[in-house]
Amino acid sequence: MNKSIIFTIIYIIGIIVGALFLDIWGSEVSLIKNVAVFIWTIIFLITLFYTDKNEKK
Q1: Closest CA to 14 of 51, 44, 45
Q2: Which of 9, 23, 33, 51 could form a disulfide with 3 if both were Cys (CB 3.0 to 4.6 A apart)?
Q3: Exposure pattern of 7-40 as b/e (b: 16+ CB <10 Å)?
């Protein structure tokens, strides 16, 4: 299994956990929850970039 697929699965699980337990898509979302989602997505994109870069070598 590619590392990028593993990281994608981890990202999806994190989004589902955030949706169910942190109520990210609720009507009252705080700034902290909003920033947490953006940070989670940024970490995911950086991880995908470096795994694809290292797999091409």
Answers
A1: 44
A2: 51
A3: beeebeebeeebeeeeebeeeeeeeeeeeebeee
Domains contained in the chain, number: 1
∠ CA 17-23-26, nearest 5°, is: 145
Model confidence pLDDT, tens digit, residues 13-33? 998 988 888 888 777 878 888
Rg (CA), the chain: 14
- Domain range enclosing 26: 3-56
Contacts of 41 (CB under 8 A, 6+ apart): 11
